[in-house]
Amino acid sequence: MKTLCGAGVALLLALPLSASAESSPNRILFTNVSVFDGNSDELAEGVEVFVEGNLIEAVGREISADNARVIDGGGRTLMPGLHDMHTHIAIFRGVTESRNKLSLPYHGAVAAARLEGMLMNGFTTIMDTGGPARFAQRLVDEGIFKGPRIYPSEAMISQTSGHGDFRTTTEPHPNLPGNRTHPWDSHYSCIADGETEVRRCVRQNLRRGASQVKIMAGGGVSSQFDPIHSKQSSPAETRAAVEAAAAWGTFVAAHALTDEAVREAVENGVKYILHGTFITRQTARMMAEKGVYLGPTLAAVYATPWEVLETMLTPTSMRKLKPVYDTYPSAMNAAVEAGVTMIYGTDILAPPTRALEFDDKANSEFVYLARYMSNAEALKAATGNAGRLIQETGENNPYPLGETGTIRPGAYADILLVDGDPLANINLMTDPDNNFDLIMKDGVIYKNAL
């Protein structure tokens, strides 16, 4: 995809979208395909898939589907649409600079411009883990924009000077009486110190339409005023977030890099760990025993050349990135050895004028995952595993009619036809323009190159 210049945002939004959804018959039968169902280690040969409306109606052999449109897959691999379970569609690098120099409409326009590209890269479902995303969910659901199904977290919940506190050093604290608040301090990050403030932030996010919530359990790379070793959300604050989310039937995800931050988050009820960069074997075993999911986001660290990162990150962030770069392999080996359930997420943050370009790197996460696990397991991270994490939203799930990430009756008809066998060659997944010959979301075909 081409990069987006700031001056062209309004013009771009005024133009018709480039990918037009094909008028989709109510009944479609896929034949002559090999099926990866999102959960198995092998392809199922000689299986047909029947779609009716926006759901998969049947999977089997010699399906009777009168008056259905037949699509001959030509021996291609049929698999579920992909999930990117760690996105920030309206946050850009450098974070503090974009917070203070770009208007909220600019952020929203660039975010909206990203949606179609994500879908055309095969991502039929995304989870936004911090920042405004409910607005984009509505744009897609109402048919104004083409894009993936979106699970918003809304404002990330951070302690003062935590990973989500993006103020400059001269800005007053937004929670102190009489101080002005920046729009970011509500829609992007909710600063909370103590259990009461954490509960308020969780409830405010849920009121705005969050399907799950995210807290900051420790330091991170992109923030400027918190070292990575800092432990942030306290046990009592984490429990308050978990209890408030559970009251709505959903779960808490936590940004956590250090072993201590991950362990404490898991001990206090967090269900989804983002990063886990420094976890030990002991903590990995605890995660596996408690059924906690891990989204490692390897491409965010390794897909961009170091010299390019130096042009995008501050010296402070670059110093913090080095130990992350060096230690991730040890953590991944520990997690895989323990049997932790892996989730596909990219955490792509790019300058706003390069956001569309960097979104095209999202599929490279498959290659980095496959360094530590089989190709099938890497694919499951983006399909079946991600679909199970979504079910943890319970009755808070905004899309309750079917499952995602799987090819079986009753699941949403989110389908890719891949030219080749990605279980044998995971690199096929990194070039969706040439290798994804059909993209269907919710029973509608958005790309058909057969």
Quickly describe the structure.
The protein is an alpha/beta fold.
Indicate the topology.
Layout: H1 9-14, E1 27-35, E2 44-52, E3 55-60, E4 69-72, E5 77-80, E6 82-87, H2 95-101, H3 104-120, E7 123-128, H4 134-141, E8 149-152, E9 156-158, H5 184-187, E10 189-191, H6 195-207, E11 213-216, H7 235-246, E12 252-256, H8 259-267, E13 272-275, H9 281-290, E14 293-295, H10 299-302, H11 306-312, H12 315-338, E15 341-342, H13 355-359, H14 365-369, H15 375-381, H16 384-391, E16 415-418, H17 432-435, E17 436-441, E18 444-448
Parallel strand pairs: 1-4, 1-5, 6-7, 7-8, 9-10, 11-12, 12-13, 13-14, 14-15
Antiparallel strand pairs: 1-2, 2-3, 5-16, 16-17, 17-18
Helix pairs in contact: 3-4, 6-7, 8-9, 9-12
* Outline type: globular
Counted by DSSP, the helix tally is 17
State the share of residues found in helices, binned by percent. 25-40%
Rounded Rg: 21 Å
Class derived from helix and strand content: alpha/beta
Low-confidence stretches: 1-20
Q: Give the strand content.
A: 15-25%
* Oligomer status: single chain
Ends apart, CA distance between termini: 21 Å
Q: Tell me the total number of β-strands.
A: 18
- What is the residue-averaged pLDDT? 89
Biggest sheet descriptor: 8 strands, mixed
Describe this structure in words.
- The chain has about 450 residues and is of the alpha/beta class.
- The chain has helices at about 10-15, 95-100, 105-120, 135-140, 185, 195-205, 235-245, 260-265, 280-290, 300, 305-310, 315-340, 355-360, 365-370, 375-380, 385-390, 430-435, and strands spanning about 25-35, 45-50, 55-60, 70, 75-80, 80-85, 125-130, 150, 155-160, 190, 215, 250-255, 270-275, 295, 340, 415-420, 435-440, 445-450.
- Strands 1, 2, 3, 4, 5, 16, 17 and 18 form an eight-stranded mixed sheet that branches. Strands 11-12-13-14-15 form a five-stranded parallel sheet, with helices on both faces. Strands 6-7-8 form a three-stranded parallel sheet.
- Helix 3 crosses helix 4 (about 135-140), helix 6 (about 195-205) runs parallel beside helix 7 and helix 8 (about 260-265) runs parallel beside helix 9 (about 280-290).
- The longest helix is centred in the last third of the chain and has 24 residues, at about 315-340.
